[in-house]
From TrEMBL:
Pfam families xref list: Tim44
Domain of life: Bacteria
InterPro entries in the cross-refs: NTF2-like_dom_sf (IPR032710), Tim44-like_dom (IPR007379)
TM spans (from-to): 97-116, 128-150
Protein name per Swiss-Prot or TrEMBL: Membrane protein
Gene3D superfamilies named among the record's database cross-references: 3.10.450.240
Residues of the Tim44-like domain: 165-312
Residue stretches in coiled coil: none
Organism: Gluconobacter kondonii
Leader peptide range in chain numbering: 1-22
Higher taxonomy: Bacteria, Pseudomonadati, Pseudomonadota, Alphaproteobacteria, Acetobacterales
Region (Disordered): 25-70
Composition-biased stretches (Polar residues): 36-47
SMART domains: Tim44 (SM00978)
UniProt keywords, alphabetically: Membrane, Signal, Transmembrane, Transmembrane helix
Amino acid sequence: MRNFRLLPIAFAVFCLLGTADARPGGGSSIGSRGSHTWSAPPRTSITPGWARPMDQSATPRPSPNYGGAPGYAAPARPMPGYGAPAYRPSYPVRHPFLSGFAGGFLGAGLFGLLSGHGMMGGMTGGTSFFGFLFQVLIIGGLIAFVLRLFGNRRQSQMGGGSRGMSAGASPFGNNGGSTPVTLTNDDYTSFQRLLLDIQAAWSAQNMRALASMATPEMTGYFNAQLSELASRGARNIVSNVQFQRGDLSEAWREGNLTYATVAMRYAMTDVTTDSMGNVIDGSSTEAVTVTELWTFVRADGRGNWILSAIQQAG
C-alpha cells in the first residue's frame, strides 16, 4: 500500500523530467540547413557564443576527423585557384557499382589466398590453364588501374593551382557551391510572423498548420514530440509570445533554394499540464526568455518561407 501512495509522486517527477523545454523543438537543435547543416552559424550580437550542433538532422554527418569549433564542420577542402588541387570525390563515391563489383572479385581472390586455395580458389577453386589466364588478366587490370589512378592524382596536383574558381563556389570548406543573398524587410517580417504562428499551431496541436509552415523533416520532429507528450497524458501550451529582437546570422542560395538563419530572442509563457489541467512543468504566470537560431528555406520565385531548422544558442 505504501508503494501505491508513491505512484502519484513518481508520475509527477517523471513528467517534470520528461517535459522540460517542451516548446517547439523541445530545447534541442534539430533540422537541416542545406550544405551548412554541420557548419557553425556565424555569431551575431545576440548569439555571441557558438550555437549547439544538430542533435537530429536528415543531413548526413560529415567525417568526424576535423577540427575548428567543437562538433562542427569538416576541414575546408582545398578549392581551385587557392594553390591546391581541386577536390575530387573518392573512386567508390564516383563509381559505387563498379567499385562494389571489382571489390567483390578482389575480396573473393584474397579469401582464396588466405584459405590456401590460390587466387581463384575463393571463387571456383579451378586450376586449369583458363583459370590461370583469368588470374593474369585480373592482376594486369589491377596494376593498370593503380598506375592510372596515381597518374591522374599527380596530374591534378600539378594543374590544380592554375584553375579558376567556379561561379558560386566558396573557399569555406563544405559550404562550397552556395552564394550569399540579401534579404528584404518583408523577409524579416515573414520570419517574425512564422515564429508566432508556429508557436500558436504547436499549442493548438494543429499538425496541418505546422505542416504548412515547416519542412517535412521539421514537421516529423514536431509530430513525434507532440505524440510523446500525448502518450504521457500531457500537453504543452506556449502563449503570450513576445518577439524581442532578431539578428541575421547568414543567408545564402543553393541551386533553386534560398536559406536564412536568424537569431531570435523572444519571451513567452511555457506551461505543460496533465489531462486534468494540473501544471506539471513551467508556469502560466511567469514568462521565460529564449534565444534560438531558426533557419528558414524557400524555393526561389515560388512559395513562402518555411522553417527548416532550430538551433539552441551556446
